[in-house]
Design goal:
By secondary structure, the protein is an alpha/beta fold. It has one domain: Rossmann fold (3-Layer(aba) Sandwich). The protein contains four helices and four strands. The chain is globular and about 45 Å long.
Length: 148
């Protein structure tokens, strides 16, 4: 994972349905960096609001209840400095969208928390693990501004 990089002025997170991983990252990035950066998320396809995602994000003080899933094609603005995709397919889709730009596209392969046991407790723990992994990786990846 290496050294942290300077905080870009805009970032887009991309996953398959824009219902779990990419909105988690959007909410966590906004909480961590506030108005210092423009943050959005999108999917390859448009999913639905995921209640478990909303619940585990609320545990961290991030309200995602108003999130509306959108696709890369729904984005009016494709002027992003940095894109992080959470699947290889999402990374390829993002590279195609941003191929004629200076946008940096990274792929962080993060498993879908809905795979595995359908037991609610196990699923909640899967979602929490994905949320915490994303949050920790964001903290390590981007340089924090010194406190004022």
């Amino acid at each position: 994972m290496g050294k942290s990089i300077p905080l870009p002025s805009s970032i887009l997170f991309v996953c398959y349905l824009n219902s779990i991983r990419s909105p988690m990252a959007e909410g966590l990035m906004k909480k961590r960096f506030g108005r210092d950066i423009y943050v959005q998320s999108a999917g390859m396809a448009s999913g639905h609001l995921d209640d478990i995602m909303v619940s585990v994000m609320a545990e961290k003080g991030v309200d995602m209840s108003a999130h509306h899933a959108r696709t890369l094609g729904d984005l009016g603005d494709t002027n992003f400095d940095h894109v992080i995709a959470f699947t290889d397919a999402a990374g390829e889709a993002a590279k195609a969208v941003f191929e004629d730009s200076d946008t940096t596209v990274e792929v962080w392969s993060i498993p879908d928390p809905t795979t595995g046991s359908l037991d609610v407790r196990a699923m909640m723990n899967n979602y929490r693990a994905v949320r915490d992994y994303i949050d920790n990786r964001l903290a390590r990846h981007f340089e924090q501004k010194p406190a004022k």
